[in-house]
Amino acid sequence: MSELVTGEAVALELRPARLPSRALAVLLDLAVAVAVYVAVTVALMASTSSLDVAAQTALSIAAFVLVLVGGPIAVETLSHGRSLGKMACGLRVVRDDGGPIRFRHALVRGLIGVIEILMTLGVVACVASLVSARGRRLGDVFAGTLVVRERVPFSSAGFMPPPPPWLAGRFSDLDLSAVPDDLWLAVRQYLARMGQLDPRVGWAMAERLAADVAARTGAPVPREVPPPAYLAAVLRERQAREAWRAFGGAQAADGAAASVPVAPTATAPAAPPPPPVAPPTAQPSATSPGGRPEVPRDVSSDGRSGTGFVPPA
To answer: Fewest CB within 10 angstroms: 22, 76, 139, 251, which?
Structure first.
């Protein structure tokens, strides 16, 4: 496989770097390191001109080790496998399982790199990279690392294959309400990365997920339906139901409201205006023995009509 396969049989989107790109990255790193070494050497010679030859030689060796050996180790450790040359070429040093490297990985690569790159002018490293199936040099073999390409072409890793046409509507009667969201997420992730898994590992994972979904729905997986196709069909059925709840229900309600006929209300004819009420005419009333007009019992003294209640005498 051209991709990097982890211990869980998952193929990562990281492809091993080949010799030309690795050689270019090493040349860029060496050019930067040599430039720094020359600058440090000139500074040391100017500042230690009063010392003897032995001290100057010791300082030169220390500068060589620190700049050309310790510098790349420190850079790869701090940048998690990305030196200046590797950044320019889109490369990175990772572990065999795809994880970031640590100090011990960078230390082993740097120490062995002194022998196979600096002392032999890169001949040993080139031969080892050509012989290795994944382009690893001796430092990578002993450190358990791999140089991979970070800039890879776009791939359809997240594409979920649709279910077979002959399964359309097959699982429309299943009760999917008991299936939890984390199980649906696992099904989606499996279908999205199904093409990256090892066939045997992927089939076993599909069987386990299909059994979990079937246990929650209460209906067994049909024998003639492969587990990956069953998962794709059930997931498509759930997506269709969710889409209907989100959009179809509202559209159906709007359509029903629009289709209900509204009965026209009959307008009643306007009632004729009531006849004008003539003001009451004053009628002569009987007078009391004292000469005052007698007030009827159902009319109050202030002119308002009474209630018909006569208080006791």
So the answer is: 251
b/e 231-268 (16+ beta carbons within 10 angstroms → b): bbbbbbbbeeeeeeeeeeeeeeeeeeeeeeeeeeeeee
State the pLDDT at residue 175.
82
Residue that is written with structure tokens 């019992």 in the block? 297
Burial 172-195 (b: 16+ CB within 10 A, else e): eebebeebeeeebebbeebbebbe
Closest C-alpha to 108, from 91, 97, 95, 122: 95
Residue with the two structure tokens 């499996």: 190
Give the chain's mean pLDDT.
75
In the chain, % of residues over pLDDT 70: 70
**Nearest alpha-carbon partner for 237 in 187, 168, 151:** 168
Q: Looking at the predicted structure, is the pLDDT value of residue 232 above 80?
A: yes
232 vs 166: CA distance, rounded Å: 12
The first and second tokens of residue 109, run together, are 């690569």
pLDDT at 163: 74
pTM here is: 0.48
For residue 123, the one-letter residue type is V
Tens-digit pLDDT profile for residues 133-176: 888 999 999 999 989 887 655 444 455 667 777 777 777 778 88
Q: How far apart are CA 134 and CA 194, in angstroms?
A: 24
Q: By the 8 A CB rule, do 41 and 63 touch?
A: yes
Which residues 6+ apart lie within 8 Å of 25 measured at CB? 83, 85, 86, 88, 89, 91
Name 4's bridge partners: 12
Phi, psi of 146 (to 5 degrees): -155, 140
State how far the Cα of 115 lies from the Cα of 226, in Å rounded to an integer.
55
Beta bridge partners of 148: 16, 92
| pLDDT, mean of residues 257-273 | 45
Position 15, amino acid: R
